[in-house]
Amino acid sequence: MEFTIEEKEWLEKCKQDPERYTIYVDNDCINVVDKDDEDFDFTFNEYGHYFIEQILNYVGCNAEHV
């Protein structure tokens, strides 16, 4: 599995503006919250070990779920 284009864009936004965006990690959900817009909420498609595998591959590692 790979991040969608929108998910990649949100990861970049969160890296570029960590004062504004926070990524909340829960057991069954990973979402972005915008401190300037309390009604905004972006949720990633995957969580748990699937999300970890996607993150590792996104940063350039060769990761596989076993």
Fraction in helix: 25-40%
Q: Based on DSSP secondary structure assignment, what is the total number of beta strands?
A: 3
Low-pLDDT sequence parts: none
* Content of β-strand: 25-35%
Largest sheet: 3 strands, antiparallel
What's the structural domain tally? 1
Tally of DSSP helical segments: 2
The termini sit apart by: 13 Å
Q: What is the typical, i.e. mean, pLDDT? A: 94
Q: In terms of structural class, how would the helical and strand content be classed?
A: alpha+beta
Pattern of helices and strands: HEEEH
Q: What strand line-up does the widest sheet have? A: 1-2-3
**Per the principal axes of the C-alpha atoms, what is the gross shape?**
globular
Radius of gyration: 12 Å
What does this structure look like?
- The protein is of the alpha+beta class and 66 residues long.
- It has a 3-stranded antiparallel β-sheet with strand order 1-2-3, with helices on one face.
- The protein is globular.
- It has 2 helices and 3 strands.
- Helices cover 35% and strands 29% of the residues.
